[in-house]
């Protein structure tokens, strides 16, 4: 090519090459066997020019190269670089990568579990560790030149997202920020905010997948392409892609009904021959079983594969199904290598614990190249699966969606069993963002020519909807930032109240809220123009129609109000009747899912706030615990009793009755049906409507008839214009209130938190009291509750095991709420202390409600959950893993994770507790040692 250039052009090209060789990027490029992509080069050049960067690119595209260049620059300049990740597993993996590249002496690791070479020039850490450093004004921040925030889109996370914004806002101005994000649809908006709070920031967005992605649907014995071949081009984001006609035909065939009543032939229904033909057609459509899917992928050379199943039990069941089907994906040599690696990694685990953990079944699956991966597994087991998968010794992994957000574990293919998952409240369709995140694992850069996403056919599937899911790239970044008590005292301690308020107003949450106000203001202006037009339309020549319309609305409002009063009276009567119920009363539940005969086990009268439901007072009414005739034990609410209820009969509840025992429920339900099954409840009679006798309604009706506009021939036309005017006016006022509500929202929340902390003597103006300084060292959802427990000496005199049990209530949250059965608790001093913690929480909860600090907005203290107190007490008392897991009724992985969180908070309490005249700090350290043993100690990843 250079021969075609003129001498001047060759000279210019040589100058450019020489200038490039003089940059820090040139030697960095040579450290890699592959060339950098354009987006990587652009981001690295911006970094070298002294700019901050935001890089938004798909999973597996190599964003971390930009972060590694920041490490390279820091070392070249003799400055420090902190590399932050959202989870410990990623921190561990990144530490290993950087230590291998730059040497273990130059790289350190800081997580909740590990501290390795913390004074190194390059330190990998979880984002929370850096946040804590900033608030403590740690000496480690001296000489810091670069901070890499990997997976920065985590700031959308409801529970932890605020930490990312805290770090971005509080980092010294001299630090260059490198933000690495998944592909988000509002990267430019996020970049604008970074530009505002961090200075000059370059936004680099790449939509290009490094490995093309092909989308398929597997139905019966065939695997169909989701899009027509000639318009797909490997999923590289072509503007128009047509759904495969074969799939459309398949969906139409399945939707055809077997019987069409119009199709009568000679007085018969559809002929047998027609039905047989239809049966043959339908026999080609079924959802393949899990072993069948893996065999098909293996036959087509599409392994290794990750199959996403939105259930832990489903993942374990999938492995068992493959084993029972005789599936073997590994050679004898691979099996031998697997056993060597697994035995080496589990050598520290005692034999009796291996049996409890299901090690031998786990090993059998691994030897065959099959494994599960989910949060319920022991962390060591998860690490083994990850290592073997990357080495190609495990070829089929059945995983929950948490893997999609976790470590670097790409596959050739990704399989989605269903497009619906449980979101904690209901079964909901997965979003385009979730679909992109899950399928982003398909296609290994430098290994695969293309990746494959396979969705299994399900009855009623709409290929068009699936195509929309696969073709949409909407994944907006939404701030979840909310001030917390710990944040408030730390900010006031460093900056004072006024400056703290200003800092919070620079958050991404406030930035987004302020931007949205602009659009709302424009809508208000358009509405006001519309109101002028509607006012002209309702003008009446006989009189003031606006006044007439107002009277009509007043009449309607009065009728509605009386109807509501009647409903409220009926609810009050129902609540009063529920308060009279006693254990052993037989009642008839009038409506709802559990309508029918029921036996009252416990009346469920609210005792202040002891039941732990904010707002659970007499406005909401009692919540009786009942046994239905169908053997279900359920806690009912006011919605199940729209009318008053009376006891139909009385029954004795055996002392031996256990709500958790199916046999016990069956026996008592049978006795209930025998005792009262024949009783027919009285029908509720409707009462005369109050509107019929209301004086105000009579007055309004008389005034309406006397108004001049009442006689207008076009009255109803005018009324329609008046109704439109009223609706638009109401909408406009709501928009104006939204504008008022969105301006300074974060600062107003901060003001309410400061008011509460002032009332509790944590703050006095700009002064942080001794209590406040203690709170500044406590991080977590229940930071204020922990501080109040220390202040009130609730944990004084507790043994290490009892203290661990109490601290567990600050971190544990049950996966599924269980109102019916109270958790088992340790006795003695621990039980007393746990009760006192709930009482203190009730006091704080009432104070928060008075100051309008709402948990629904992500602020405030949730109720402490006592469900882990008994298991962690047993464990800290030295009991064996078998006994503890049996009592805990949870998988080993969950047990280890909660233990590690208990250890983390115990460490905070040991640091925050008073040193003099207190046993708490000493016992917290002993409790850490008591909990950190066995499976908890030898699991390196949290």
Q: Could you please describe the fold and organization of this structure?
A:
There is one protein chain. With 942 residues, the chain is of the alpha/beta class. The model is unreliable at 230-239, 257-270 and 608-618 (pLDDT under 50). The radius of gyration is 33 Å and the shape is globular. Strands 4-3-5-2-6-7-1-8 form an eight-stranded mixed beta sheet, with helices on both faces. The protein has a seven-stranded mixed beta sheet with strand order 10-9-17-14-11-13-12, sandwiched between helices. A five-stranded antiparallel beta sheet has the order 21-20-19-18-22, with helices on one face. Helix content is 49%, strand content 11%. The chain starts with 6 loop residues before the first helix and ends in a 5-residue tail after the last helix. Helix 20 packs across helix 26, helix 29 packs parallel to helix 30 (828-850) and helix 33 packs antiparallel against helix 34.
């Amino acid at each position: 090519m250079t021969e075609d250039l003129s001498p001047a052009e060759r000279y210019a090209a040589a100058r450019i090459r020489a200038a490039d060789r003089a940059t820090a990027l040139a030697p960095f490029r040579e450290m890699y066997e592959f060339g950098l992509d354009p987006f990587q080069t652009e981001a690295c050049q911006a970094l070298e020019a002294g700019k901050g960067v935001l890089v938004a690119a798909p999973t597996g595209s190599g964003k971390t190269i930009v972060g590694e260049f920041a490490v390279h620059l820091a070392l070249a300049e003799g400055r420090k670089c902190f590399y932050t990740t959202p989870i410990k597993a990623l921190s561990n993996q990144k530490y290993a990568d950087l230590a291998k590249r730059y040497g273990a002496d130059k790289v350190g690791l800081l997580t909740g579990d590990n501290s390795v070479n913390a004074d190194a020039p390059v330190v990998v850490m979880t984002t929370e560790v850096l946040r804590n450093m900033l608030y403590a004004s740690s000496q480690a921040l001296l000489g810091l030149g670069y901070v890499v925030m990997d997976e920065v889109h985590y700031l959308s996370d409801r529970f932890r997202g605020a930490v990312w914004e805290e770090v971005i806002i509080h980092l010294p101005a001299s630090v260059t920020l490198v933000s690495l994000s998944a592909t988000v649809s509002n990267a430019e908006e996020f970049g604008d905010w970074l530009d505002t709070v961090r200075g000059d920031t370059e936004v680099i967005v790449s939509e290009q997948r490094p490995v093309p992605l092909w989308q398929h649907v597997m139905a019966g014995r065939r695997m169909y392409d989701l899009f027509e071949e000639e318009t797909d081009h490997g999923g590289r984001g072509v503007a128009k892609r047509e759904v495969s006609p074969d799939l459309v035909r398949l969906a139409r065939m399945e939707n055809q009904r077997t019987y069409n009543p119009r199709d009568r032939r000679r007085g018969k229904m559809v002929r047998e021959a027609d039905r047989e033909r239809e049966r043959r057609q339908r026999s080609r459509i079924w959802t393949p079983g899990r072993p069948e899917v893996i065999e098909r992928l293996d036959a087509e050379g599409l392994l290794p594969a990750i199959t996403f199943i939105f259930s832990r039990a489903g993942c374990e069941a999938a492995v068992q199904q493959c084993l029972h089907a005789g599936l073997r994906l590994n050679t004898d040599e691979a099996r031998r290598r697997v056993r060597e690696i697994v035995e080496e990694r589990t050598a520290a685990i005692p034999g009796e614990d291996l049996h409890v953990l299901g090690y031998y079944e786990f090993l059998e699956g691994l030897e065959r190249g099959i494994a599960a991966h989910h949060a319920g597994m022991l962390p060591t087991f998860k690490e083994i699966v990850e290592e073997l998968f990357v080495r190609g010794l495990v070829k089929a992994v059945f995983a929950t969606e948490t893997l999609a957000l976790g470590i670097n574990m790409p596959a050739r293919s990704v399989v989605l069993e269903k497009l619906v998952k449980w979101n904690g409240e209901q079964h909901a369709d997965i979003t385009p963002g979730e679909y992109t995140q899950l399928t982003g694992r398909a296609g290994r850069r430098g290994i695969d020519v293309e990746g494959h996403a396979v969705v299994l056919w399900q009855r009623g599937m709409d290929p068009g909807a699936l195509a929309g899911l696969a073709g949409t790239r909407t994944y907006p970044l939404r701030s979840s930032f909310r001030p917390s008590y710990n944040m408030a005292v730390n900010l006031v301690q460093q900056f004072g109240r006024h400056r703290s308020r200003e800092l919070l107003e620079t958050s991404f949450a406030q930035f987004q809220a302020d931007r949205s106000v602009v659009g709302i203001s424009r809508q208000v202006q358009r509405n006001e123009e519309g109101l002028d037009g509607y006012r002209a339309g309702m003008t009446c020549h006989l009189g003031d129609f606006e006044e007439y319309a107002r009277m009509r609305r007043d009449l309607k409002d009065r009728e509605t109000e009386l109807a509501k009063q009647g409903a409220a009276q009926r609810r009050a009567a129902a609540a009063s009747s529920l308060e009279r119920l006693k254990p052993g009363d037989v009642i008839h539940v009038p409506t709802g899912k559990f309508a029918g005969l029921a036996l009252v086990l416990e009346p469920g009268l609210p005792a202040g706030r002891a039941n732990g439901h904010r707002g659970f007072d007499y406005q909401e009414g009692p919540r009786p615990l009942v046994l239905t005739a169908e053997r279900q034990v359920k806690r009912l609410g006011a919605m199940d009793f729209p009318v008053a209820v009376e006891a139909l009969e009385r029954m004795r509840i055996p002392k031996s009755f256990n709500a958790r025992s199916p046999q016990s429920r069956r026996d008592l339900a049978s006795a209930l049906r025998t005792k009262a099954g024949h009783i027919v409840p009285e029908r509720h009679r409707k009462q005369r409507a109050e509107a019929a006798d209301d004086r105000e309604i009579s007055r309004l009706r008389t005034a309406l008839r006397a108004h001049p506009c009442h006689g207008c021939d076009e009255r109803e036309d005018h009324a329609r214009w008046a109704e439109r005017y009223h609706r638009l006016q109401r909408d406009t006022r709501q928009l104006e209130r939204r504008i008022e509500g969105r301006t300074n929202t974060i600062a107003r929340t901060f003001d309410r938190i400061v008011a509460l902390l002032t009332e509790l003597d944590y703050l006095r103006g700009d002064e942080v009291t001794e209590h406040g300084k203690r709170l500044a060292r406590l991080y977590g959802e229940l930071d204020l509750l922990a501080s109040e427990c220390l202040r009130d000496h609730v944990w004084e005199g507790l043994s290490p095991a009892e203290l661990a049990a109490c601290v567990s209530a600050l971190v544990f949250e049950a996966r599924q709420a269980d109102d019916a059965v109270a958790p088992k608790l340790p006795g003695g001093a621990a039980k007393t202390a746990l009760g006192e913690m709930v009482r203190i929480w009730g006091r704080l909860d009432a104070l928060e409600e008075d100051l309008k600090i709402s948990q629904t907005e992500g602020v405030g203290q949730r109720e402490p959950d006592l469900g882990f107190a008994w298991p962690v007490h047993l464990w800290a008392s030295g009991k064996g893993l078998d006994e503890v897991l049996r009592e805990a009724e949870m998988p080993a992985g969950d047990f280890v994770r909660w233990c590690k969180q208990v250890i983390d908070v115990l460490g905070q309490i040991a640091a925050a507790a008073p040193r003099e005249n207190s046993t708490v700090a000493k016992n917290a350290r002993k409790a850490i040692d008591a909990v950190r043993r066995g499976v908890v100690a030898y699991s390196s990843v949290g």
